[in-house]
Amino acid sequence: MGFVDYDVVIVGGSLQARAAAARGARQGARVALAEPPGEVERELHAQLLVRHLAQIQSGETKQLDWAACGRYIQRTMEVAYPQWTRSALATQGVDVLEESGHLSPGPPLTLITGQRQLHSRGAILAPAVQSQLPPIPGLAERAYLNLEDLTALPQCPDRLVILGRRPLAIALAQALAHLGTLVTLISRGDRLLPEEDADISEFVESLVIAAGVDLRLGTSVVEVTGENPLILHLRDHPPLATDHLLVATLPRPHLAPLNLRTLGISTETPYLSVDDHLSTVHPRVFACGPALGGYWAEVRDHQDGAIALDNALYLPQRAIRWHHRRALLPTWPPLGRLGITTTQARAWYGPAATVLQVPLSGLVSSHLTDHTTGFCRWVVHREGPLLGAQVVAPEADQVLVILAMALQHRLGLQHLAQIPRLPYGSSEILHQLLEAWQQQRWQPGRWRRDWAENWFNWRRTRQN
Q1: What is the rounded CA–CA span in Å between residue 38 and residue 10?
Q2: CA gyration radius, the chain
């Protein structure tokens, strides 16, 4: 191998890329981060907008100052993520380049940009993503929006059509409808969340419809005409007029400029294919973040970035457990998911998989906060190990953090049952589920109940 400038070069454009760069610099590695200008800020802006609107939904008011909303998000970005700004990364020792490039196999492995050639021992692919424009006649010639462009509007839109079912856009549709915007969400699929259990997808659909969204599943746009307003011609439906059209199909990573074919990495599929060590077919090129696909990529879960970085810097020994990833759909209440679904568990484990569910209406904390819509469901093996969980509740993320730790350390429910009981919040949800699990284990006819009854009967006869 020839002269090497860096221990790792990160092809960025995502939050995961910046987090990995900061982690590498902290460990003393020589790190270079190449990212197109503005991509991370656009991603953060979209995430914070949806979360801010969800917080407004959770309160009593339906008032929104659209200009103040943009300023609030900008201040939040500056306060909440100061360690991940380009200037902060440069201060930590990361060589930050505001340009993209393409990879050359070398040796050594090289990222070639417009100004420099960066030689490295390894590379991490964590590029930006963007919704792909559907091949609809007339769409490319019209002024459409991406999710990241919404706050550039001078005011909150009166009418908005969302094309696609990107998770952030689902939450956005619900929030804007709650605030009075006439929102129509159109998707060719017959379910809003095809990766979830059918009843959970139906529940989220009902939340969106209850907020006032005109949800049209199983249909498509055949042509877009007009200027102001835009006219969408639908299959099997009358034409639809709108002030703004937001394209929110599932995002795809920007892979074409990277010249990955010269490294033997296929770009024919929408997302990058990796093994459990997050390695591509090239032994020194790893991937993380949205480039791997899955709607968990749009939440604050950066464990894949840490694993890809450690494997690129050291020996590739760390493996990711795909079922341990947390997914969060920022609707109100939010939907959180961890592990496998009920459908998957029953297909893989059969009768050994047990499903437990607690409605929020049965919790004291839910009535105190007036948030009784939702439930917590988890799937367990009859021997105790947790297989998966789906939570629709304001505390969804908190509950999943605890359950993710249990999964990571292979703790069974018998260990979670030893957590001290707290009166409110996520702990109440967990303890209610543990109570339901214990009741199921001790039902008449189960071996524990039979053994205990035999023991009590024997002891009573001894006392007599």
Answers
A1: 16
A2: 25
Helix (H) or strand (E) holding 201: helix 198-210
Q: What span, in angstroms and rounded, lies between the C-alpha atoms of 16 and 13?
A: 9
Cα 206 to chain centroid distance, Å, stands at: 21
Would you state the structure tokens that stand for residue 56, as one six-digit string? 């407004």
- Categorise residue 278: left if φ over 0, alpha if ψ from -120 to 50, beta otherwise: left
Cite the beta strand spans of 229-299 per DSSP E.
230-234, 240-242, 244-247, 251-253, 285-287
Nearest alpha-carbon partner for 23 in 380, 258, 308: 308
Burial class (CB in 10 A: 0-12, 13-18, 19+), 280: buried
| pLDDT tens by residue, 56-95 | 877 655 567 787 888 888 888 878 777 778 889 999 999 9
The dihedral region occupied by 13, where left means phi > 0, alpha psi between -120 and 50, and beta the remainder, is left
Give the chain's residues under pLDDT 70: 1-4, 59-63, 295-301, 412-414, 416-427, 463-464
Q: Which residue has the tokens 């099997």?
A: 236
- Rounded to whole angstroms, the Cα distance separating 384 from 448 reads 14
